[in-house]
Amino acid sequence: MARLVVLDTPEEQAFEDIVFIASQTCGAPIAMITLLDTDRQWFKARVGLDVTETPIDQSVCRIDIDDGDMLEIVDLSQDDRTKANPLVTGERALRYYAGAPLKLRSGDVVGRLCVIDTEPRPEGLSETQKTLLSALARQAGDHLELRRIARASDRLAELQTALVQIGEGIRASADVSTMTAEASAIVGRVLDVDRTAFGLVDADVRHVMIEQDWTAPGVASIAGRHRFEDYGAIRDHLASGDPLVIEDVETDTRTADNPAAMRDVGIEALVNMPVRQNGRTVAVLIVNAAKRRIWLPEELSFLRSVADRLEAGVSRVRSDQQQELLNGEISHRLKNMLSMVQAIASQTLRDITERGPVESFEQRLVALSAAHDVLVQKSWTDADLRTVAEAVIETVGFSDSVHLTGPSVTLGPRAALSFSLVMHELMTNACKYGALCREGGRVDVNWSIADDDKDQILTVRWREQGGPPVVAPTRRGFGSKLVRLGLVGTGGVDLRYEPTGFEADLRASVQHLAEA
Amino acid sequence: MHIHKPIVLVVEDEPLLRLFATDMIEDAGFEVIDVANSAAAIAVLEARSDVRIVFTDIDMPGGINGIRLGACIRDRWPPIEIIITSGKPWPVESPLPQRAVFFSKPYRQDRVIDTIRRMAA
Predict the structure, then answer these.
(1) Residue A107 scores a pLDDT above 90
(2) CB contact under 8 A, A359 and B19
């Protein structure tokens, strides 16, 4: 417990003041705030003594520590519990001891505030001195508590920042190995451990596969496949979904039988945080330390959150990859189907002598397929107007003579397909009768968005110039009907056969375009 | 007098598409040998030395796909021209064989024929 509090922290004035007052109050040459650890006692503050710690078996403070009461020994050389203590028998020759317990709010006793004399004091402390010593010990306990809270909240903020960083990294990663590598590195640094890894667990939770781990400088990697059983009785624990938290592989019951297995890979303390999916452990976030270590509750909940986030991120990437594969496959089949339609039409219409309509058919099919290619890039969710226009122009040719200007506009799948057909008709007409059938002719396509009463309206303006004199067609063919269907199949089309060149205005609601 | 037409090897596993490609290329004045897979294509190329152009699909069952076939031809028969076609986009990670041309399916017949004529010229 004491380790959690202030062990090995710099000296602080508040504690120095408390031991000074204790020494003065009790008229004792030595006063100390002692923190008890498993193997040593450590002096948070002291007057009259020149050491900072002693082995725990020389500790007088630990005697009856669990009682939570004041301990007073008027002559250490006469008391059975202390008369053989080197501090008493040796050169320091301590004789008198009184110590009040240091309690945290949790009730945990972490040490004592004590006064020590080199002379026996048969009469002991007065009642007033005892009361004051106890009051000072409560002060010291409160200070320890405040220090602990302050440090824990600093730590929490640090972990929270790391968690945010990890979350951002996960969202930005498109593949599993980058995601886990980045998260492992952040976890490793913020927890100041020696190794972190994210390993996938096989179906019966016997093996873990670590593709890549993060290691502190000079620490060996454990990338590869490992059998849980080889490292102690840890498998059942992980299978049930509980975090495996080991502070010391030598004393922990799960690893004590063969701590060498862990030590061989440089592990003295570890956390394995299981990741669950459908009630099964599917992965584990591994943290290794090369020294014994107490894992704080906030560190464990941090690891829990990181493991959950990684799991969600990995699932997202996997499902994206599957979706992409599926989309690719569907798209491939659809395009093969369009090819079959092309082949059947071509074979069926082989003997038709008038080739114009046959070629128009094929070109429309190819334009539709080009729009499809654009949609596939974003899994058929939407497409950018310019990208669709460019793809269609590509299939017809003349891309040097067609000039596109306008902002980015999102088209839904249906709008993308109908826009591609309209674009294709305008292009083929321009090639046959309009600006593109003459050298030097050009088409300007510009589009803009303007606010209507209730809606944002996109207007696409098609302007031809440099072509032969324009004549309005006498007959409305399929191509012309396609154009008149407009951007979303509901009209909004204005066609003008100006002497300078053919012009078309196509209008549609931006919202409608995106949703269609 | 008999004039030798340039020979185009068509590799396509889907019979209807093979027939379509064969007719298209023959109508343009070329001689076509058509096979259904890469192994058969390689057998043809090993048996005769007069093939000018290979027109191949990518996705074909069994063994070698059109991408590897293209690479193999470029390696073993450097003078042969290559046209590759597929319903899938060309995979970004593989480079096209030198001088090869890629067409997305469905393709415009006139574009393909123009390319074959240019290659045969």
Answers:
(1) no
(2) no
